[in-house]
User: What shape does this take?
Amino acid sequence: MFSAFNSARSVVTLFHSPTSSASRRTLQLLKKHMESSKRKVFDLDVTEGPPTKDQLKTMLNYTGEHKVSSIVPGAASLSEATLILQSGGADKLLHPIVVDWVNGKAVLGDDEIGLKQLVQNLEK
Assistant: This one.
């Protein structure tokens, strides 16, 4: 009766920059996985905009707040990162960032191994 709760798909967001070769490669890997998968295990949301303050806070919960300068170069805190993103938009953000909101995971930058692990965990 409640098996539908166990099969809910994850939502994966790619914070994407078409000018970044790493971001384009990440998008291709995610699409390739979706096409080759026997069942659709996640919905892919691709955005070229910056994350909201709440999204950024959630990402830092997943990665550890010490990673704030990895996500937004030059930022030492969530409030600084928010100000930088508000003033400069998505071009101030590290690309790509892949976030699995349901399972609480984030992969920063061109981390192909981390991305593959994230996708494999979605298959379970």
About this structure: The two ends are 20 Å apart (CA to CA).
